[in-house]
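Quick one from the shared queue. A colleague (R.T.) flagged UPF0154 protein I592_00793 as missing a structural entry in our internal table.

Convert sequence to C-alpha cells.
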Amino acid sequence: MVSTGIVVLIAVIAALLGAVGGFFLARKYMQDYFKKNPPINEDMLRQMMMSMGQKPSEKKIRQMMQQMKNQQ
C-alpha cells in the first residue's frame, strides 16, 4: 500500500509542475499574439485616419484612444 504522505506529495508536485507549465505556455501564447496583433497606438491611428482621407487632429486622436480604452 502507498502511504498517504507520498500520495499528497505527488499531488502537490504535480500541481506545481502544472502551474509552472501553464504559466510558460500562456506567456508564449501572449508573446506570439502580440507579435501578430500589436496594440493600436496614436501613431497607428494617425496613419489610419490619413489613409481614409481625414486630417487627424490631436482632439480626435485622444477621443478615439479614450473610446478604445473604455471598450476594454
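Residues 4-36 form the longest helix (33 residues).
The two ends are 54 Å apart (CA to CA).
Added to the table.
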